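Example record

The entry below shows one chain as it appears in the dataset: sequence first, then structure tokens.
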Amino acid sequence: MKKSILKFIPFLIMASFLVTGCNQGAGTTATAAKPAVEAKSQKPKGPVYKGKVVGLSNKAKQISITVGKGKDAKTVMVSFDENTKGLEHASVGHGSIIAYEMRDGSPYATVIKQKLAKLPPGVTVITPLEVEAFRKDGKDFELIDSRPGNRYSASHLPGAISIPVCEMQELLQNLPKDKDKLLVFYCGGPT
């Protein structure tokens, strides 16, 4: 009985990551945030800014976001208020999509969503059950935890290496040298 329960532990851990999300923690989110479910049900209407959040001030109720690339990049200040949906997605250092409306000549955030990466060609999504099958079959693969480092330190799947999405460029040297090796990334949410 005890042995059969142990077989399900990796699956339960992966399932918990899928349920809990991929956040950095309460210290990086705004205090006036609305529930995430409410923000996800809203589709951005009107103009949007897409880019990396570089500053957030709850006192001034302003978000700084860098939009554009290269020499065309600029930082834009967007105000928010108690009616802004999805404020928890305005985390410094993370990509966001901010739908806004103009009020007295200034942009005010109406809905904020995570800016999610698109999967490149040849990349597929697999289920926790498929990863468990890889383990049982002895398939050679590298398991990579792409959550923030503090989440990895709190707990992670056995054998996983930590390469947080936000530090991916700096930590590429930690990937296996064998270019044909299967890489399985996990986070626990829509990263």
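Notes for this example: The first strand starts at residue 48 and ends at 57. The domain at 31-114 is CATH 2.40.50.140 (OB fold (Dihydrolipoamide Acetyltransferase, E2P)).
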